[in-house]
Structure formats: C-alpha cells, structure tokens
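#dry-run=false #mode=assembly
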Amino acid sequence: MTQLLSKDSWQYREINRRAPSLPTLSNALIALADAGHPVMAGTADLQYSNGLSGFAQRYPERFVQFGISEQNMVSAAAGMATTGVIPYVATFASFLALLCCEQIRMDVAYCKQPVRLIGHHTGISLGFYGTSHHATEDIAIMRSIANLAVVSTADGPALDAALRATVDYPLPIYFRIHRGHDPVVYENGVAFELGRAIVHGIGKDITIIAAGYPVHGAKRAMEELNAAGHSVGLIDMHSIKPLDEDAILEASARSKVILTVEEHNILGGLGAAVAEVLAEKGRGARLVRHGIRDEYSLIAPPTHLYRHYRLDGDGIRAVALESIA
Amino acid sequence: MSVRQTPGGHLLVARSHELLSDEQLAFLHERARFIRLETLRLISIAKVGHYTSVFSCAEIFAALYYDVMRLRKGEPAWTDRDRFLMGKGHAAVGLFPILADLGFFDPAWLESYTRLGSPLGDHPDMTKVPGVDFSSGSIGHALSNGVGMLLGARFQQRDFNAFVLLGDGEMQEGQVWEAALSAASHNLSNLIAIVDRNGYQLDGKVDDVMAIEPLDEKWRAFGWEVHTVDGHDLEALTTLLRAVKADRARTKPCCIIARTVKGKGIDYMETEPGWHLGYLGAEDEAKARETIMNTVISQ
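#status=ok
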C-alpha cells in the first residue's frame, strides 16, 4: 500500500472518526438495542457520514443498507414499523425532507408509524457542497405535516438525550441534526422532554430563542452581553413541534425583544413558529427573526458561511445588539 | 403434476396439492362474482368509482383472499398473517367487501362508503379500516412498504409473505424500481409482486403513454423470478400463486405478470378506457349486474 507523504492528507472515513459528536446517533441506538428496544436503523449510502457504521457493526441484523434510494428507504421504514420495530432512517436533511417529503407524509405521518427520520448535515453545514446539499427549508416542510414531531437538538449530548427520551413515543419524529463536528453546548449532558424548551434565562432587554447549531453561538452571545451589562436570556427551543408556547409567552411578557435564531430560511421555520404564537397570544415583545433571508447560501467553507450569515457567536451578538439599539 | 412453461422460459412445477379441486374453483368463481357485484353496489352509493380497475383484478383478489393468503377470519391484526398491499389503491372498492366478508369489520360499514366520516374512501386507509395492511393512494410506494414489512419480519424471525398488487401504469414510478432493487438485494424471497397488466392508465394505453415493455425482462434484470399468467384464469392463477408461495427453495423475490383486461366482464367497459372512472345509472347497473350473474369468467 502506498504510504501517504503528508500529514495533512486525509480521507473522510478517517476524519469522521475524529468528529466528536458523530458517533452519538450510533451509540444511542446501540444503547437502546442493548436495553431491549426493538430498534433498527437504515441509511442511504451514508453510514460513514452519519456514523451508523458503528451500529451496523454492532448489530448487523438490525441494520439495513438501502443504497442511494431515499424514497424507498422512507416507505420501507414505514413498512418495518408496522411489524413492531422502531426504524431510525438517516440521510442528508436536504434529501430526507425535500426528496422524500411525500413518502414522509403518506407512509409515515398519515399512517402514524413511529419512524424516526434523522436528517443530518442540515442547514448550511455542508458549506461549499452547495444548495443541493443544504437544508434551509426542512423545518417549514416538516412542521406542516400532521402527526409528525420536529426536533432540532443543539449538540451531541442533546441528541443523545432526545433519542433515548423519545424511543417509546408512538408517533413519528423528524430529527434535524448537524454533522458531528458541531461544538458542544451541554458538556455534562442535558435532560430532554419533547415539547419542553431548555430555558437558560429570560432577559429584560432581549431573549434569544434558538434551535440546533446556533444555540452554541447564542449562548456565548448571551454570556458576553450579560457580562457587558445587558440583560439577555436564551431559550433552546429544541422541540419545534410540539412547540413550548409557555416558554415563548413568558419571554414575551418579560422581554422587550425576542430574537429567533435559526440555520434555516426565516420563512416557515423557528422564527415563523414563534411569530405565530406571538401574533395570537403574545404580550407585546417585539420580534426579530434572524436566519437565512429567503435566499440560497453562498459557496464557502461552513465556518465562513456561519460568519457571513452571522450565525456564530460574534454574529448573533451583533444582531442582538442591533435589535435592542 | 402440472408443468407450466412461462413465456420467459421459466419452468414452474405445481405439485398435486397445489392444484385446485372443482369445488375450490367453483368457490373462487363465485367469490370473484361477489367482488364485482359488491363493486357495483358500493359505487352506486358514491355515484362515482373505479369499476374497471377492480374488474381487471377481481380474480387476483379472489385467489389471494379466499385461497392463497394465510389469514384468520375476524383477526385482521394477527401478527403472522400474510400481508396484502395495493399500489393501485383506487381498486379498494373491490377490497372492502372482502375484508368485511372475512369478519375484519362490520359489513354495515359498507353502506357508508365515501359518505362523510366513513372509514371507507376511494383509497384504503390502514388507520381507519381493520384488515388494510398499508394505506395507499400515491402510486409507487407499496412495493417499498412491502420490502420494509419483510425486513422487519426477518429481524423478528417471522415468516409471513407480502403480496403486492401493482398497476401496470405504476411501473412508470421510479420508486418501484428502487424497491425492486432493494428486494432482490436483500433476497426477500417471500415478497410476491403481482402486476395487473390490464394495459390502460388514465391517459390511454400504458405503452402509448410511457412504454414499459419488455416487462418480464425488466423484472428479471432486476433480480426477480418472473412468471406470466392469464389474470382471469382462476385455475392457472391460483395454482401459480400456491406454487410460488410454497416454493421455499427460491432465494429471489417473485413477480407475477397477470395479463388482464380492464373492465373484464362488461363488454363496453373493456373497449372504452374512459370507464377508468365512471358511474352506472340504475338501469345500466341492473343490466351489468345481470351480465355478471350470468357470466363465468375463466380466461
């Protein structure tokens, strides 16, 4: 075998082994299987991207390789669920939520099958792979499908908690997750309850409501702004559906501004869901929606995109300051 | 022993216990007639429906539900039952009377067919109708659903079969071929697809709208065992289905191309594709009923 000459050379299976949160999905499913839950998993030629290769090695009889046939995978998962197993099927969020939207609606949600749909590498996390691989519409599509819960966890520990806490949930769930290289928010783990947000604080000046990857930057922004004398709060709204309306209403009663932050089009996503609650029941807090402004992302490495779209800590802090100026 | 040579050259040997007795055959003819008559009756409630889609597969319904499938009357959720899925969900009007007849739900439900709040609509809904093994309505999903059922069954070491009735127009859906690949790749030998090859879809002849032949070669190329049969010849069809189900040496999934006539049994429906969707007024329905009562369809 030819020896690589440069220490900078890499191949993706190897680099993915070093992604801190990538094994989360696989490890959680292994733990659930170990505990006697009838879980199975499937993917569409992406087992090294979502880490299910680990589950496949540990439980080959529970793993199904569907090849590049995402629609078949989703419909088959619904069929699997009718036999009493809990199927977790994973592929890029862009393909799962957009290519398989109709299979999700018809076979999974309408038929009330407890399939777990794992949309990974969501938002703009695939950087310069471009729009075909970005998912900035998935929340809008998935949350309009009846019977389907939508969960967007901030990091690996939160995903682990969410997978374990929902194993017996009788209806389907769409999990919107990142790529396993995302920074950790909850180093010591976190409790998960579907429909119950994690409230890090309610600020008199501003409360940030975020979900998914931007929670990390929002938490840093909150801490820095509070240290500078502002009153800033943060709600990690991991359950986009069912939505924690009580947490939103409490923030609307006590904060001057509510700032929603999402790695998604501001149309139809978390900001829209919060806006719907505020419009019907809110108590006067002004709403600012921050995210992708109804456009397709530029081409760039992911970290550059997060900086450009102001979804990192510095960017969210700047948007928050502008919102209360 | 009966040896059948399929057009594709595959030899299928039916053992003697797979052959039908005269009584069994007469019973199945009567059941196929029942399905057609009930279809007339239910469509008279809705005042619109897919007569011809049922008439092309009435013998297939009869053979599966009254002979071939492993079922328990009155136990629609029996774990080890054989499953039936229909890609051509618009023929559900012919399925509902069977499910009621098997005690899966109260036959009185049939009177509510398509009325406000009824569990019974134009397409089958598993969340509303006991005995419907999977919902359908969007063409092209059912074979995938069947693949998933058998993957779940394999993990749980259950040995039921899944019979998936597909329309020939459905062959134009890409997802069917994803499912075909996966079934062969996973060696799902207890998956049996039946293509109702009646030759028509909404816009005209299937092969004018989007040509699908040579269909047997396509399925064979996708790794399936393929048989072709006259879908109205209840003796041949049932014998073949019995033999295919009993063949535990097969490692591939099996596709049966059932050559059928859309609207079979009512002559004007057989020649006019507009009858894909229609309604017979009282006098025409009575005449159709009389025709069906006086006809034995054997091929």
